């Protein structure tokens, strides 16, 4: 229950950041950089009486129906919650600010800040194994019937939307929309990797027993003891291998520094760790 609440908390933080980026940067400047948001912005140009928030909600409902028909109901409660709440958040902001209110009308600044906020928000939502629906569904349908990889299918859909904005608005807005598509993918990947990064650590120490005890008892983690042999000395030795969070690694580093200043420690980034003590591999 606690884990679920934590997941929904972070999904809420994610869609609120995303809603802020859409409301104050992307939508009022007509930067249709992919997704249901982009489609809603394009439709809103022809039907301005229907807000972007309402159009996003209608489009997502239609896409969910299409998904149930063509690819089954493989969309969890977290995705439905994020999708509907995102539209609700933008609609709520529309009540307090004019629909076309923008913090800046400079297209470059709007693209940079709007895409940055959108990428951070989406990255947080995706990191909780959820999504905001939308063109993910179109990409899945394309993947099912044309066997195009999901990543490529999503990129194709978003680029089509961005190119359409160049035709409907003008070439300059279209170019900024394409820039937004490229930046968004990079930011989402960076955020997901950053949130999931752990430290992969190899340790050679004469105080091995103390280090093992500290990892198990103080950090509540485990480690693997590997047999080794010095290439230069030919001496048999033991090597410890463990994976820790960033804060845990700092504690371990300080402990090793205190008990064995001659220890040999190798540290590298582990961008995804699945299994006991970390993310449940069954969710992937």
Automatic annotation (TrEMBL):
It is found in: Cell membrane. It comes from the Bacteria. InterPro entries: DUF2179 (IPR019264), N-reg_PII/ATP_PRibTrfase_C (IPR015867), UPF0750_membrane (IPR051461), YitT (IPR003740). Its main location: membrane. Gene3D superfamilies: 3.30.70.120. Keywords: Cell membrane, Membrane, Transmembrane, Transmembrane helix. It is a multi-pass membrane protein. The keyword Transit peptide does not apply. CDD domains: YitT_C. GO terms for cellular component: plasma membrane. It holds the Pfam family YitT_membrane. Residues 221-275 form the DUF2179 domain. The chain crosses the membrane at residues 7-26, 46-72, 79-97, 109-130, 151-169, 175-192. The keyword Membrane applies. This is Uncharacterized membrane-anchored protein YitT, contains DUF161 and DUF2179 domains. It comes from Clostridium grantii DSM 8605.
């Amino acid at each position: 229950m606690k884990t679920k609440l934590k997941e929904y908390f972070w999904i809420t933080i994610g869609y609120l950041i995303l809603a802020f980026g859409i409301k104050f940067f992307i939508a009022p400047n007509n930067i249709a950089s992919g997704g249901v948001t982009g489609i809603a912005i394009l439709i809103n140009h022809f039907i301005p009486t229907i807000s972007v928030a309402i159009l996003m909600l209608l489009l997502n409902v239609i896409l969910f129906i299409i998904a149930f028909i063509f690819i089954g109901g493989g969309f969890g409660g977290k995705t439905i919650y994020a999708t509907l709440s995102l539209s609700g958040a933008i609609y709520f902001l529309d009540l307090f600010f004019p629909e076309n209110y923008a913090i800046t009308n400079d297209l470059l600044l709007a693209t940079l800040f709007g895409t940055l906020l959108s990428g951070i928000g989406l990255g947080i939502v995706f990191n909780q194994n959820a999504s905001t629906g939308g063109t993910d569904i179109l990409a899945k349908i394309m993947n099912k019937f044309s066997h195009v990889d999901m990543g490529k299918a999503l990129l194709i859909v978003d680029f089509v939307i961005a190119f359409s904005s160049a035709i409907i608005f003008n070439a300059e807005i279209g170019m900024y929309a394409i820039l937004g598509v490229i930046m968004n993918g990079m930011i989402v990947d960076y955020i997901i990797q950053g949130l999931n990064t752990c430290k992969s650590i190899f340790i050679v120490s004469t105080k091995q027993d103390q280090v093992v005890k500290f990892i198990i008892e103080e950090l509540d983690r485990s480690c693997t003891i590997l047999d080794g042999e010095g290439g230069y000395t030919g001496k048999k030795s033991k090597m410890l291998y463990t994976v820790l969070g960033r804060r845990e690694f700092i504690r371990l580093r300080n402990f090793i520094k205190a008990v064995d200043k001659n220890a040999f420690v190798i540290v590298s980034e582990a961008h995804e760790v699945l299994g006991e003590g970390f993310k449940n591999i069954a969710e992937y």
